[in-house]
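Cross-check.
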Amino acid sequence: MEKMYLTPAETVRTIVDNGKRVLTQSRLRTFVLSLLAGFYIGFGAQLATVVTQDAAAFAGKGVAALLGGSVFSLGLMLVVVCGAELFTGNSLLTSSALHGEITWGQLLENWGIVIVGNLAGSLFFAALMFESQLWMNGAVAETAIRTAAAKCQLPFGVALVRGILCNWLVCLAVFMATAARDVSGKMLACYAPIMAFVASGFEHSIANMYFIPTGLLLAGKLGREVPGLSWGAFFRDNLLPVTLGNILGGVLFVAFAYWYVHLKVDAPR
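Predicted model, tokenized:
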């Protein structure tokens, strides 16, 4: 009888083996898959905005955060089950580099292609939502603008730490989804950690590539001057520290930690 899940040691080995795809996968294929990941995270992010725009008034802030995190998890489910290249999840490629299966140069090249593709996909999805005119008036637009402004106003160190905590959970979600052997198990593995990071208020770089441009587009259309909300603040005050934090959280607390525990003894010398 086939096992329903892999052990942690088996999961690390599978992640290391999966990382070898960068040896044969073309740059164009990687870029297209990274575009798809930007779209998928955007689907979850926009749904979270719609669900939470009035939930707190009826159920309280805690329940609203729980609901937002629950629906946002759709994004990683789509990435994992349908297949896509997500920058934050690709922190786990570090395990392959540590084990000598890919070079550090190949790792950095993958990260570079994927983060550009994720950004392009997220911006395109934000433009699609803007052109849909679903949010031009009312509470949803106000929620989107308020969310974007709050993210741009975070101090650098705060955004960095929230980024660390976020991708710690995101990479654990990918780790557990890799361990699961069926679709339902993979979806559940994605749900719990992603719900936890969103409900906790942590910061995800790729989600913010959708949230903040959407707020900027809506504020511009509605003629709103929002303190601290600008394209410069998006890249400088949020995306930079959050991306660095995401890298640290995924690499140190998941990729390196589990490689060290389960595979370092076997690593090439």
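Residues 231-262 form the longest helix (32 residues). The mean pLDDT is 95. Passed to J.P. for a second look.
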